[in-house]
């Protein structure tokens, strides 16, 4: 797997159960996945020699991010490496313009957008959409970096001018008036088998996913079926191998728009580790190896995932002690830590909590978010004092 982050770490964890071992191409031996697999190649994902060393003798080459230049992957394919997802598919997760043009061709619902060649495009586009616009870098964005929700036209012009002056290509998109954000997570194998997990609600703060509720509460059966079908159709049309996450907006008038594609295990699927028969990490391995795909059914009426995001200042209390307290108070919390240093806003782990009844959503969400906040801040959001209270 190219990339030594938490996605590779958790994919390795799933691979072990299948009798496999993941070799990772990591930037540093401290990377989350490099800490846990004995088979590490240190190098950059932009270095063909490093990619060759990582791929040598492996059954397949896959990714924990989308940033490997497709020219290098084309070379590896020509040399006989099985690259999954293949470069022709992956490019749609690398380049937001390529993706939007392809989705438009396929008739998939997307916000109105335009490529940008100069600042004056802002006025023409804003006039055409008749409302606020969003500026996005065409490549390289993640966790909301490279996305500017413009306050007004002057702000939009300023943002576009700044990017263009730095030589960074951007696109413009209409700002969608949305009820909430959803994600469709599917997998596809080279054989052509597809499998979809239930549609989830993703809650974002400052462009970062903080909570995922599975399945999305109150989503109509029709919209859920439409989103699942869309995910499966896109996986097939784009020739995806592995997991595909389709980030969606549910608009205020109740329709779906595609925001973003990711061709790898995705934050919106972390709940599957504890809440579904087959986790997204196992499914990714199965798909990449062209095994039959696993059952995607949820094992509970509701599962909530809350990200552990580094606090503004790392707490004095050790992580070990925080875990001790957490398990004492919330024994059902399933914790997944990534072995990363704590930095403000950084994803350092997540907590899953599986509920027992559909009506549990609010309670389970509160407990999952409280657990995650405790792990990052060493503070209980309800002011509970573990040394004096009984809970
Ligand atoms: P990234 O690729 O960095 O994850 P996204 O394209 O997913 O960036 O955008 C990050 C967040 O910005 C989204 O989750 C959403 O909350 C907001 N956003 C993005 N595009 C739009 C849009 N067209 N209208 C309204 N909000 C948007």
From TrEMBL:
Protein's GO biological process: 'de novo' IMP biosynthetic process
EC number: 6.3.4.18
Membership in a protein family: Belongs to the PurK/PurT family.
Pathway(s) served: Purine metabolism; IMP biosynthesis via de novo pathway; 5-amino-1-(5-phospho-D-ribosyl)imidazole-4-carboxylate from 5-amino-1-(5-phospho-D-ribosyl)imidazole (N5-CAIR route): step 1/2
Stretches assigned to the ATP-grasp domain: 100-289
Ligase listed as a keyword: yes
Molecular function in Gene Ontology: 5-(carboxyamino)imidazole ribonucleotide synthase activity; ATP binding; metal ion binding; phosphoribosylaminoimidazole carboxylase activity
Protein name according to UniProt: N5-carboxyaminoimidazole ribonucleotide synthase
Binding site for ATP: 96, 136, 173-176, 181, 259-260
Gene giving rise to this polypeptide: purK
Keyword Transcription: no
Leading EC class: ligase
Species name: Mycolicibacterium aromaticivorans JS19b1 = JCM 16368
InterPro entries (UniProt xref): ATP-grasp (IPR011761), ATP-grasp_carboxylate-amine (IPR003135), ATP_grasp_subdomain_1 (IPR013815), PreATP-grasp_dom_sf (IPR016185), PurK (IPR005875), PurK_C (IPR040686), PurT/PurK_preATP-grasp (IPR054350), Rudment_hybrid_motif (IPR011054)
């Amino acid at each position: 797997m190219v990339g030594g982050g938490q996605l590779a770490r958790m994919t390795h964890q799933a691979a072990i159960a299948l009798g496999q071992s993941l070799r990772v191409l990591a930037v540093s031996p401290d990377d989350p996945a490099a800490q846990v697999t004995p088979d590490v190649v240190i190098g950059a994902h932009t270095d063909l020699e490093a990619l060759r060393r990582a791929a040598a003798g492996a059954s397949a080459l896959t990714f924990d991010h989308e940033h490997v230049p497709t020219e290098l992957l084309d070379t590896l394919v020509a040399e006989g490496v099985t690259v999954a997802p293949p470069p022709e598919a992956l490019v749609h997760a690398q380049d937001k313009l390529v993706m939007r043009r392809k989705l438009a061709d396929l008739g998939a619902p997307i916000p109105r957008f335009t490529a940008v060649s100069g600042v004056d495009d802002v006025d023409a586009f804003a006039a055409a959409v008749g409302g606020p616009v969003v500026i996005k870098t065409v490549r390289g964005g993640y966790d909301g970096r490279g996305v500017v929700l413009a306050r007004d036209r002057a702000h939009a012009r300023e943002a576009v001018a700044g990017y263009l002056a730095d030589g960074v290509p951007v696109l413009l998109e209409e700002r969608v008036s949305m009820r909430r954000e959803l994600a469709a997570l599917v997998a596809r194998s080279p054989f052509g088998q597809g499998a979809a997990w239930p549609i989830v609600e993703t809650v974002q703060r400052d462009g970062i996913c903080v909570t995922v509720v599975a399945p999305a509460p109150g989503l109509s059966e029709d919209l859920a079926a439409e989103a699942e079908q869309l995910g499966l159709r896109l996986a097939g049309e784009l020739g995806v191998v592995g997991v595909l996450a389709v980030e969606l907006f549910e608009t205020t008038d109740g329709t779906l728009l595609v925001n973003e594609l990711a061709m790898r295990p995705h934050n919106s699927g972390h709940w599957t580790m504890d809440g579904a028969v087959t986790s997204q990490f196992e499914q990714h391995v199965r798909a990449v190896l062209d095994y039959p795909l696993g059952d995607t059914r949820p094992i509970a009426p509701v599962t909530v995932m809350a990200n552990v995001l580094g606090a503004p200042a790392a707490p004095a209390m050790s992580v070990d002690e925080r875990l001790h307290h957490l398990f004492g108070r919330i024994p059902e919390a399933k914790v997944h830590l990534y072995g990363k240093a704590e930095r403000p806003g950084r994803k350092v782990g997540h907590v899953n909590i599986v509920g027992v009844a559909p009506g549990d959503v609010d309670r389970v969400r509160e407990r999952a978010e409280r657990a995650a906040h405790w792990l990052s801040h060493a503070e209980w959001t309800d002011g509970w004092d573990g040394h004096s209270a009984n809970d």
